Amino acid sequence: MRRILGDIADLVLGRCCIGCEAAPTLLCSTCRAHMSGKAMIARDLMFHDVSANLRIPLAVAHAYAPPLSTVIFKYKDNHIPELAHFLANLLAGAIEQIQSHTGIPTAGTYLIPIPSRSGSVRQRGFDSMGLIARHLMTSGYRTVDALVDHRASGRSKSLNVAERQFAALNAFHVRSDSIIGQLSGCRVIIIDDVTTTGATLREAAELLMQSGVQVIGCASIAGSRKRL
Ligand SMILES: [Zn+2]
């Protein structure tokens, strides 16, 4: 029913597919199929500061390239919340890669989203990562809003690698001691929409590990395979 209503809305609004600009729907089945089923472990993130040779897998659902980069841009900057469900499904594929890579089952694992930048939430009028996390919850995942963002506002895209890594320092704090209590003894996977250097995920993982939380992996919808 939702699909039919969506199709009617597309006709009324004159939408065409974000991916191929050909099919008269928001995101056509060919483009969806092209982006699905490609989740993989992109690389390990290293945490020598926490413990010698500590490495944690980073899974990405797809390369950060068209059409996915366009879909994410439209979702966030053009505020098309109808795309959240599809993006959440892609992210679930990356999360499953961590489960199979580590052999640790989904049950008993919490997902911790990288919070949307507070400046972006104000500017866009919606919390893009929060909405994806809510879709994951309806799919049966347990998510905990454990991190508070205090990154400087501004667009990370305009930063170079060194600036981005510097900006990731002290980017977050843990929301409350009670959340740490809730997570102690549990395994967590940190989730984000796009990762390039991995610096943001590393910062969040390190903060949580130093608070005593067991981080078993990081998962992102889109990611480059650029090495740190
Ligand atoms: Zn298409």
Overall structural class, as computed from helix and strand content, comes to alpha/beta
Provide the CATH top-level class of the largest domain.
Answer: Alpha Beta
- How would you sum up the major sheet? 6 strands, mixed
Distance between the termini: 45 Å
Query: Which CATH architecture of the largest domain?
Result: 3-Layer(aba) Sandwich
Describe the protein.
The protein is an alpha/beta fold and 228 residues long. The protein folds into two domains: 1-35, no CATH class; 37-223, Rossmann fold (3-Layer(aba) Sandwich), CATH 3.40.50. The chain has nine helices and eight strands. The chain has helices spanning 2-13, 29-35, 68-77, 84-102, 118-124, 128-138, 161-168, 177-183, 199-210; strands spanning 40-46, 55-63, 109-113, 142-143, 147-149, 172-174, 187-195, 214-223. Strands 1-2-8-7-3-4 form a six-stranded mixed sheet, sandwiched between helices. The chain has a two-stranded antiparallel sheet with strand order 5-6. The longest helix is centred in the middle third of the chain and has 19 residues, at 84-102. The protein starts with a helix and ends in a 5-residue tail after the last strand. The mean pLDDT is 87. Bound molecules: zinc ion. Zinc ion binds at residues 17, 19-20, 22-23, 28, 30-31.
